[in-house]
Design brief:
The chain has 382 residues and is an alpha/beta fold. It is built from 14 helices and 7 strands. It has a 7-stranded parallel beta sheet with strand order 3-2-1-4-5-6-7, with helices on both faces.
Length: 382
């Protein structure tokens, strides 16, 4: 290391402070739209790098490496720039209730032109949107398993947006399906989950691609951490979300040439009515009992079936009700100049995905079995 020299080193440190302060100022001025943890981390990292250059390197290498860091920092900052709303038009599927319903209101308040696809245009969820949202929001009957309805809505939206195209499609519609051991589930449950969570999204994507080509917009696909993380009793749901996850990755690669971006969101558990009511749980239990073979039912037992199903639904009821982390990621995916390919909304989603991605399978299995612990065993194992 060269002898310590105050003048150039102080200049280097001053540049570091200015850049770090600028980044923090940008964070404060855009805190409602920027991904704040990323900005804070980025600013802190830049300041630490400047301090390292200040104390540890020669003048030449200090300036060289720090200048490179500044260039990368500026490139990153520009890529995180948020685009203006300017009445951008977005389509949200599954707006009857839950996340899709709340997200429709949220985007309407921000000034977007919102098209909402609902399963029942005359249902309470659709009527609530019509009453509470501005005239920028339109509600359409669109069952995503019904190609004719998708085609009709596409034509009506195309007439409204004309040459500007549609800026974003948020593929949110989805179902949970029956929660039970995979061996107990009838194939109809697997098909139902795939029809809604995967094939429905594919159908919507193909139908609205021409409108996104005009705007060079983006798809925001609402998958789940269950699309990467295997979860007990969720075999049908996990399988359908895994299909959606890999489909989103393939489409991201294929649509780059058109200037269309594909954003994938893996939310953790949020409390919605996707789990259904007690009456629905009773019906699902009855359907399994009517379809499972006698020898399999004898191995598991009725007590195990009921206790495992109902216990998991009760755990889902304890999920957070605050959608703001999810909405922040969705908004970043819609408006960021260069959005991330993947967002993990909610701390559990990020931690579990890291666990299965970077740790041995034995470690993941141990943790997963602890999280989804059940004190009841199948009849044949007691």
């Amino acid at each position: 290391m060269t002898p310590f020299s105050w003048e150039p080193e102080l200049l280097l440190l001053s540049v570091t402070v200015v850049l770090g302060g600028t980044a923090l100022y940008k964070f404060k001025s855009q805190s409602k739209t920027m991904n704040s943890p990323v900005v804070i981390f980025h600013s802190a990292l830049l300041c630490l790098w400047g301090a390292y250059c200040f104390f540890s390197l020669s003048i030449f290498w200090g300036w060289t490496l720090f200048s490179m860091a500044c260039c990368i920092s500026l490139a990153y900052s520009s890529s995180q720039e948020m685009l203006p709303v300017d009445g951008k038009a977005v389509l949200i599927t599954g707006g009857d209730c839950g996340i899709g319903h709340a997200l429709s209101k949220y985007l309407d308040e921000l000034g977007f032109t919102v098209f909402v696809g609902v399963l029942n245009e005359k249902g309470p969820g659709a009527e609530a949107l019509k009453k509470s949202c501005s005239n920028r929001t339109s509600v359409f009957q669109m069952d995503i398993t019904n190609p004719a309805q998708i085609k009709e809505v596409q034509a009506r939206i195309a007439e409204k947006v004309k040459d500007t195209g549609l800026w974003a499609v948020i593929n949110n519609a989805g179902i949970l399906g029956t929660l039970a051991d995979g061996e107990l589930l009838p194939l109809s449950i697997y098909r139902q989950c795939m029809d809604v969570n995967f094939f429905g999204t594919v159908e919507v994507t193909k139908a609205f691609l021409p409108l996104l080509r005009k705007s060079k917009g983006r798809f925001v696909n609402m998958s789940s951490m269950a699309g990467i993380v295997p979860m007990k009793l969720f075999s049908a749901y996990c399988s359908s979300k895994a299909a959606l996850t890999i489909f989103s990755g393939v489409m991201r690669l294929e649509l780059k040439k058109w200037g269309i971006k594909v954003v994938l969101i893996h939310p953790a558990g949020f409390k919605t009515n996707i789990g259904g009511t007690t009456e629905r749980w009773v019906k699902e239990e009855k359907d399994i009992l009517e379809n499972v073979s006698p020898d399999v039912l004898e191995a598991y037992g009725r007590d195990y079936l009921r206790s495992s199903m109902w216990a998991m639904h009760q755990e889902l009821d304890k999920s957070p009700t605050d959608f703001s982390p999810l909405f922040t990621d969705v908004l970043h995916g819609i408006l960021c100049k260069n959005p991330s390919a993947l967002y993990t909304a909610g701390v559990p989603s990020y931690l579990l995905i890291c666990l299965i991605s970077f740790f041995p399978v034995s470690v993941f299995d141990y943790v997963a079995l602890k999280i989804f612990y059940s004190s009841t065993l199948p009849k044949a194992l007691t």
